[in-house]
Amino acid sequence: MSKTKQNNGTPPTGHDWGERTVQSVTYRAPEHWETDAYEMGQRYGITDIDIEAFTRLHDGGIVYPDLVIHERSPERTETKKGTNVLIRGKKKGCGKSTLLKHLDRQFMRHNDSRIVWRGSPKRSEWLAFRKWTTLYLPANADVEARWMDEESDRPVSDVDVLEEIVRDVVYYDSVQDLLQTIGDRPEGTFNVVYPDPSFAGCEKVFEQTDTDYTDLPFTPRWEADEDNPQTQLIHWWYAFIVGRVYLGPFQDWVLTFDETGDITPSRSETKQDDQRTFDKVAAVRSALADSRRAFLTFVFATHHETQIFDEVRREFDWRIHMPDGSPNPTKDYKASIPLGFDTVPMHEDLMSGTDIGTALCYSEQGFTLFKWEDVPPEPGDEARFLQIRLSAPARRPDALAQDEDDSLDTVEFDDTVLKEWENQHYERLYVKQPGEGYVSITNQRIEEELVSPVEGLEFVDRLVEGDDALEVRMVDGDDNEIVVARIPDSSTAFKSASEVGGVGA
């Protein structure tokens, strides 16, 4: 069933893998250069899907090819536009991550799909494809990359230049910018995306789409306080999925999640909390239901289906049962039929004794046993993984400008280091994380010691009397002071210096 010419993993003469592939099948590369998907097949011996061979062997059952091969006007398959599949493998080592890479390469080869692989600081199974990878990172965060030991989960070495590890690194400003950028770049590409801890554009996505959910909170860690709790980073993907399905671009994309339980947690864990997690997951469920007509394919993997919210599970029309020693569902054992299916086409156990390398793909209409090839790590990556951590951007505050002609009648502050809080009785300026402390605007004094969130700058330990205002100041290593907040004087005369400057005075 192979159509791919093999060359035993030898890269193009005089060049490394991924160096000169054209990343697109819409035009020919110069001379003998081929596509990324072709090179991936050459490198790892991944065979192309032969629909005719599957049809002969499976008596017309082409559930697996139908999952992978998308035809807008189906001639060889039965499904057009996007598809979706939930892969279940209970045991570690049953091959889920390798299968994901195999499937993504097939999507690229047969549909010119743009792959979007979910980046996570805890894992980097995509590394085998790093020669062909475009890495997308948020511009609104500091990025720290390092090699980690796979066994001990401890750092091995820092990574200063990510471009030396992957083909390309692209920084995006918002969800909308990312969607447009991936859409503008070549098709048939492998893209790894890391979410943005600033959540830029997330709220606007829900305002721009026709979902029933608005005003959903997306609060960065460095802007959180007791009234606005921090949003978990996984919530960024809710906005990405909703934005891609309803705003586009409407091209053949595949969204690959190596671990799915945290983005759509089970019903018992999905609560209507202060982050409105239930509403966000419900929006994802609606997007999943509409994803096929938006040419978006979901490939989700999990250890246990019950880890995933039940309403989300109902939207998957394909399942892949991994060789983990467990029996596949059968018609006669109704308790084994997955949620969302009324029935399954199997009468017998096909999978209990199956070795790694063979899986069962099925829908309500049919099933196909299929094989996949191993995709081992690049030499040197066997015992390590790449950890990419995202944190608050290190923005230095600017001195507040002052108009000499106008007296101050409202609080002014630099929002890179301070945020305002108030209720009906009190008004305060809090230092943003990772700093600490706050100034009482009501009492016009430092109530809790101010700790700087910015390296190289420290707070002056008292409020300084200015023209018609009290000033919060910071000082650098050269004793240069900048004003980062002004609080209008609410009394006819300033308090004494000790009252103004002392913490809790």
Automatic annotation (TrEMBL):
Residues 1-11 have a biased composition (Polar residues). The lineage of its organism: Archaea, Methanobacteriati, Methanobacteriota, Stenosarchaea group, Halobacteria. This is ATP-binding protein. It comes from the Archaea. Residues 1-21 are annotated as: Disordered. InterPro entries: P-loop_NTPase.
